[in-house]
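step: validate -> pass
step: tokenize input -> pass
step: predict -> running
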Amino acid sequence: MSLTPSISRMKKAGVFCTSLLIALVSAIPGPLLADETCMSPYMAKIVGQEDFVYVWTLGAEGVGDEQDKLVTIDVNPDSPNYGKVVNVLSVGGRNEAHHSGLTDDRHYLWAGGLDTSKLFIFDVHTDPARPTLHRTIDNFVARSGGVVGPHTTYALPGRMMLTGLSNDKDHGGRTALVEYTNGGDYVATHWMPTDEDLGGAIKSGNFADGYGYDIRALPRRNVMITSSFTGWNNYMMNLGKLMGDAEAMKRFGNTVVVWDLHSRKPRKIFDVPGAPLEIRCAWGPHNNYCFTTTALTSKLWLIYEDPDGEWQTKAVADIGDASLLPLPVDISISADDSLLWVDTWNDGKARLFDISDPFKPVQIQETKIGAQINMASQSWDGKRIYFTSSVLANWDKVEAPEGEDLQYFKGAAGSH
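step: predict -> pass
step: emit ->
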């Protein structure tokens, strides 16, 4: 697998899949737009060579203006600016910039700050090479009824569904989904089910922790699926201190929840121990399943609909050696549902699994990308995949072994 181009030392390139490979039409007639495979199914599929990548970056002391910013990178091989940063848009402050996502009409890119709970809505339609800040939402906590830490920003028809990571009462993991219009008007808050309030859901195991992290939808099955992580107290703590705090390590999510997409009501709560993170769902019209990974137990899990129409979960593969704490983070499923990339932050590796039998994934490749790694974003045609490095400001490594990149954006050619 050849890496080209490589833009190293891009501070805090912590981005979400739908912000990492944003394929946009040029300002003049030229290449078509192109998709990554983690786009919401409510977006019409488009193909071709992507022109730009947007990276939602975290400001760092002593680096540039020290502010969070949206960085635009030219990734069209036919462009004279190929591999170069072509635009930088600072938003002011350091908000723990993390993930972002497009609206269903592709006109706006929503980006969130996990610490300040601010939301930034960028216009990426008017001039894709030079996005502008369309709107800032600074009352997310108050408007949502106490949700803290907007994480995933996921497109539904005319709506953006946001997962929260925490709450303003104890800054723990209890949280909710928050729904907005594309333009940024608050619609509703949907709290995660807990033992105290299951919200009509069936508790299938030992846990109903109310934690949240990622969200995906399978419209043909009228299903939303959410995963869980941890609260503000943990994700804003120094990683070394966190790992040495036995009580804090107990405060990680252990659940996946299947929701009714139309009613926004939880249906069933599953035990998925070890902090399940990103969710990626199959694209095939008869492939009613999704994958997630557990950060703390290094497992690949399948979330699937059985022949009776009931949703189930199953651990289907190990990811590296769990005793070495590889810490799985992002995943990317191919458009034909045959391959799955899994990034492991701590060892800086990208692992490729053959998932042609989703119940029996087989690792077929392992590649060192850098000293640490976070997000992966794969083009629809499978010819390109992009990687970034940062997870959280207080968790990121501060030094890299000689010859290894620490903070970067990298493009890889080919699926193998």
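step: describe -> The domain at 2-413 is CATH 2.130.10.10 (Methylamine Dehydrogenase; Chain H).
step: cleanup -> pass
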